[in-house]
Design brief:
Jelly Rolls, five-stranded antiparallel sheet, 10 helices, 28% helix, L-ascorbic acid binding, IPNS-like_sf
């Protein structure tokens, strides 16, 4: 199955694979608290673009992933905790996830090294073709990226895609490759637990998850300068089932559902951030929700983040699980694939608030 979807990608475009536009896995959402009318020449930062002073109120969802491998009663408790975090927040952090600090640090080191390369070296990966295996850029045409540089590429199967990755710095392929393999293991472990929490068998669609897509979005945010906007990445939700985020320092904010306000997520030692994506909301038939989040520039230091986005193979459709659809819970979303997502992006390049998830919504008689 791996070879079949890899071959499909290679036959669908001249460059050997598909990739995303500047959001690379992010489907934007319109958040009423955010305006996008500040001109490039403005030196006044609107209040809504200032970072939040509020840390996420305790208890912030933190999951000890190592407990999933203990006795059945302990595992069941962790599954329940993950299910609650998915329902109430759409995100959580994981500790004791089995990825060594060394592997995490060297991935950040590799990313930092790439962004320090001469401009002409990095710009060799710049392209307007959204179906490039590796894509670099420093700004966005769609108001998603506001102040960041990014490098985006496929990571699974690693043996198929690593040949397209940058050869400079020399450590990049080795260190980023090691991290990509480890973080994918964590993603599959989390998928099993989330499916259990939904009342589905942990082996539900297992082969499709095993053969699915992994996309790495490697981001560099500058230290904030006086008078500049403090938003590095505008509000958005992520494509796919899960995004696992590694960050070098604090800078992530989430939209708190209960207060409709931005909350700063605390940076815990050796923790990874986990975001529920659009296709997880679809699969769950709306029982768990995608999380709206944004990146804030750090006034103390530049920030590196590495987002690992996980989904089905490009043409594999994601639909609401039949087990979660009934008379009381009718189907809320149409089925869709990664390829459909790409088509949606390309058809809405000039739409600042193109929301992929909303485009999948099934309207009922009550909505009309």
């Amino acid at each position: 199955m791996i070879s079949s979807w890899t071959g499909m990608l290679k036959s669908s475009c001249t460059d050997g694979c598909a990739s995303l536009d500047s959001s690379f896995g992010a489907s934007t959402v319109q958040v009423k608290a955010i305006r996008s009318n500040m001109s490039d020449s403005s030196r006044t930062v609107p209040q809504e673009q200032l970072p939040s002073d509020d840390l996420h109120p305790r208890p912030m969802p933190v999951i000890n992933l190592g407990h999933l491998s203990l006795d059945s009663a302990t595992r069941s408790g962790v599954v329940d905790d993950i299910a609650k975090a998915c329902r109430d927040f759409g995100y959580f952090q994981v500790i004791n996830h089995g990825i060594s600090q060394s592997i995490m640090d060297t991935a950040v080191e590799a990313a930092t090294g790439f962004f320090k390369l001469p401009s002409e070296t990095k710009e060799a990966f710049t392209s307007d073709d959204l179906r490039q295996p590796v894509r670099y850029d420093t700004s966005s045409k769609d108001s998603i990226s506001m102040s960041r540089a990014f490098l985006k590429h496929y990571a699974h199967p690693l043996s198929d895609w690593v040949q397209y990755w940058p050869q400079q710095p020399p450590i990049y392929r080795k260190y980023m490759g090691s991290y990509s393999v480890e973080v994918r293991r964590v993603a599959l472990q989390l998928m099993e637990a989330i499916l259990e929490g939904l009342g589905l068998n942990k082996e539900y669609l297992q082969e499709k998850f095993q053969d699915g897509l992994q996309l790495l979005s490697v981001n560099s945010y500058p230290k904030v300068s006086h008078g500049d906007t403090t938003i590095g990445l505008a509000p958005h939700s992520d494509y796919g089932f899960l995004t696992i985020l590694l960050t070098s320092c604090q800078g992530l904010e989430v939209l708190d559902r209960s207060s409709d306000s931005w909350k700063t997520v605390q940076q815990l030692p050796h923790a990874l951030h986990v975001h529920i994506g659009d296709h997880m909301e679809v699969l769950s038939n709306g029982r768990i929700k995608t999380v709206v989040h944004r990146a804030i520039l750090n006034p103390e230091e530049a920030r590196i983040s590495i987002a690992s986005i996980h989904g089905f193979a490009p043409n594999e459709k994601v639909a609401c699980a039949e087990e979660l659809v009934d008379e009381q819970n009718p189907q809320k979303y149409r089925e869709s694939s990664f390829s459909d997502f790409l088509d949606h992006l390309m058809a809405n390049m000039d739409n600042k608030h193109r929301n992929f998830l909303e485009s999948l919504s099934v309207r009922t008689k009550e909505d009309n």
